[in-house]
Automatic annotation (TrEMBL), chain A:
Belongs to the adrenodoxin/putidaredoxin family. It comes from Nesterenkonia lutea. Its cofactor is [2Fe-2S] cluster. InterPro entries: 2Fe-2S_ferredoxin-like_sf (IPR036010), 2Fe-2S_ferredoxin-type (IPR001041), Adrenodoxin-like (IPR001055), Adrenodoxin_Fe-S_BS (IPR018298), Beta-grasp_dom_sf (IPR012675). PANTHER family: FERREDOXIN-2, MITOCHONDRIAL, FERREDOXIN/ADRENODOXIN. Keywords: 2Fe-2S, Iron, Iron-sulfur, Metal-binding. This is 2Fe-2S ferredoxin. The keyword Iron-sulfur applies. Coiled coil: none annotated. SUPFAM superfamilies: 2Fe-2S ferredoxin-like. CDD domains: fer2. Residues 2-106 form the 2Fe-2S ferredoxin-type domain.
Automatic annotation (TrEMBL), chain B:
Its cofactor is FAD. This is 3-phenylpropionate/trans-cinnamate dioxygenase ferredoxin reductase subunit. GO terms for molecular function: dioxygenase activity; ferredoxin-NAD+ reductase activity. It comes from Nesterenkonia lutea. It comes from the Bacteria. InterPro entries: FAD-oxidoreductase/Apoptosis, FAD/NAD-bd_sf, FAD/NAD-binding_dom, FAD/NAD-linked_Rdtase_dimer_sf, Reductase_C.
Length: 107, 414
């Protein structure tokens, strides 16, 4: 189990307990975190689970695959070097306590 | 009073969600026939079937959503009748709901085969979570799988069955796979791609009947040309039929779905229809269409909410679709038709390409295979009514992504 903290543009936060292997998108949708849509169900097809990962956790994330890279070029909110798709990040013990920022727009 | 939404799928929930975010404060009820929280359907024919993985449903909205937004979700409940003059909906639990606006988001059901043996044990459709969970179990034990229909569902299932090590035969009466959705070029690429996966795709060959074993379970499929394929598991994916009977019984106009205008209202302005069940005037095809997709369900759900809140704009969203078949990704933006002029870009040999469809010299649709950047570029271009000419697209080295970047940087009108 890892705790992931989703921070909204308004500053409010949701701390979600995520089972190992479960994606950030799935955990956020299941727990009703606002602003994480996951329209395609987690296949890097819709770019509606875009999140900004705080830099201190960057090294613990899985590498960006080509598909995710291409989809990230087309997110609704600005893509930055901290941008990832939540569906492509499974929770691991190394990510415990990670803070991710939810963008203002997804679709 | 307030809004009653019949159907707890992607479209119905989006109406409820968008009404609340648009400031609607009256009661909202969602009538959902299935038990449990409404869930996402795309993974049912994909991730849920992968070997080993547990098919855990992915909710469309978390439980807190319904309480926080004060949305009355009636699970395991069926709407039996609508009285439009009294503005009431009668439910199977004996209650009656009144409405100011009624929304049909009743979706579609699988078309069924009528041939001999179509109701044998071991012959399944794939539409609901229950179907997907059953097929997940069946696949673990199956050896010889026959799929009837080479549409999205059939081919997604075929790829999953190969991943389980099953022998897989797909019977498709038409001359190409996904014939209603994609160009010949894309169809041909998927034909060879599935052959390489080891799927036996039999084109121009439909199902004649199924044979039964002594216990009443399917044993073989016999095709329209008389070939016999052993089968201990069959999945039928031959399209869907709109759930429009309740609307028809309420004397709303139906014809391949519930007929609505560009604002998604039926002939009764207090009644709307959205998603798979709605037959609407489509600016992208120039005809009335019914679309079965997450995009259409979501965007029509949002639009219907705006209509209820008093806007009178037309629904003009660009349709887009996707399918994943094993490791193959297909993404489609726009609607192609058989008469379109097509230009392929990229490298089909390397399995990364797009097919651009032109109608009257204008870009009308783009099918992208393993090329998400092309797809997202296509959505931007088609959504803005932009696009290359056929000659520009056919030029050596043409890249949709670079073209879209340049188009975006040009001043308006460029």
């Amino acid at each position: 189990m890892s705790t992931i903290i989703f921070t909204q543009p308004s500053g409010t936060t949701d701390a979600i307990t995520v089972e190992e292997g479960t994606s950030l998108m799935r955990a956020a949708v299941t727990n009703g975190v606002e602003g994480i849509v996951g329209e395609c169900g987690g296949q890097a097809m819709c770019a509606t689970c875009h999140v900004y990962v705080r830099p201190e956790f960057a090294a613990a994330l899985p590498e960006i695959a080509d598909d995710e890279e291409e989809m990230l070029e087309c997110t609704t909110a600005e893509r930055t070097e901290r941008s990832r798709l939540g569906c492509q990040i499974p929770a691991t013990p190394e990510l415990d306590g990670m803070v991710v920022d939810v963008p203002s727009d997804q679709v | 009073m307030g809004v009653v939404i019949i159907g707890g799928g992607q479209a119905g929930l989006q109406v409820a969600d968008s009404l609340r975010s648009g400031g609607y404060e009256e009661p909202i009820a969602v009538i959902s026939e299935e038990h449990g929280l409404p869930y996402q359907r795309p993974p049912l024919s994909k991730d849920y079937l992968t070997p080993g993985a547990d098919p855990v449903p992915l909710p469309l909205r978390g439980e807190t959503f319904f309480t926080e937004k004060n949305i009355d979700l009636r699970q395991g409940t069926t709407a039996l009748a609508v009285d439009r003059s009294a503005r009431t909906v009668a439910l199977d639990d004996g209650t009656e709901l009144t409405y100011d606006h009624l929304v049909f988001a009743t979706g579609a059901r699988n078309r069924r085969l009528s041939c001999t043996g179509a109701d044998l044990d071991g012959v399944f459709g794939l539409k609901t979570l229950v179907d997907a969970q059953r097929l997940h179990r069946e696949l673990a034990a199956a050896q010889d799988v026959v799929v009837v229909g080479a549409g999205f569902i059939g081919l997604e299932f075929a790829a999953a069955a190969r991943a389980h090590g099953c022998g897989v035969t797909v019977l498709e009466f038409a001359a190409q796979p996904m014939g209603r959705a994609v160009s010949e070029e894309t169809g041909a690429w998927f034909t060879s791609a599935h052959a390489e996966l080891g799927v036996r795709l039999r084109l121009g060959e439909g199902i004649e009947h199924f044979e039964s074993d002594e216990r009443g379970r399917v044993r073989a499929a016999v095709s329209t040309i008389g070939s016999r394929y052993p089968a201990d598991l069959v999945v039928v994916g031959i399209g869907v039929v709109a759930n429009d009977a309740l609307a028809a019984a309420a004397e709303l106009k139906t014809e391949n779905g519930i007929v609505v205008d560009a604002s998604l209202r039926t002939s009764d302005p207090a009644v709307l229809a959205v998603g798979d069940c709605a037959n609407f005037p489509n600016v992208h095809s120039g005809t009335r269409t019914r679309l079965e997709s997450v995009q259409n369900a979501t965007d029509q759900g949002k639009h219907a909410a705006r209509t209820i809140l008093g806007e009178t704009t037309d629904y003009t969203h660009l349709p887009w679709f996707w399918s994943t078949q094993g490791s193959f990704r297909l993404q489609i933006a726009g609607l192609s038709s058989k008469d379109d002029w097509t230009v392929a870009t990229g490298d089909p040999g390397a399995g990364k390409f797009s097919v651009l469809s032109f109608r009257g010299g204008q870009l009308a649709a783009v099918e992208s295979v393993n090329s998400p950047a092309d797809h997202m570029s296509a959505r931007k271009l088609l959504g803005g009514g932009l696009g290359p000419t056929p000659d520009e697209a056919a030029a050596p080295g043409f890249s949709l992504k670079s073209y879209a970047r340049q188009a975006a940087s040009k001043p308006s009108g460029g």
